[in-house]
Design brief:
There is one protein chain. This protein is an alpha/beta fold. It has a domain at 10-90: 3-Layer(aba) Sandwich (Rossmann fold). 38% of the residues lie in helices and 23% in strands. It has four helices and seven strands, in the order E-H-E-H-E-E-E-H-E-E-H. The strands form two sheets. It has a five-stranded parallel beta sheet with strand order 2-1-3-6-7, with helices on both faces. Helix 1 (16-28) packs across helix 4 and helix 2 (40-49) runs parallel beside helix 3.
Amino acid sequence: MTEAEGCRVFVVEDEFLVALQIEDDLIAAGYVVVGPFTTLQGSIDASREQNFEIATLDLNLRGEFVYPLVDELLARGVPVLLLTGYTASDLPERFRALPRLAKPFNGPELIRKVESLLAAK
């Protein structure tokens, strides 16, 4: 069994095609996708109801930053990968050290970052 098999990844992404690509890439690599979720409140609610090991989060959902969700997940010990076009210096200081994948990205880049996050867990 690889690390990916059975690992549940919580996905938050509001761009339909990007969400589909993330989902396809994760499933092809053996991960179980929880989501994708497209709104901040929906994501927060789902994160409280679903079981998952790691989270990939689009930082900005239609103009609404996911900072409250990031804070909640980190407080629960859930590893978070930020998917964003923002640089580390654009982020609140408390999030600057978090793993980040710059948009646009490709499937292999996503899987490497997720594997790295899982390995560090």
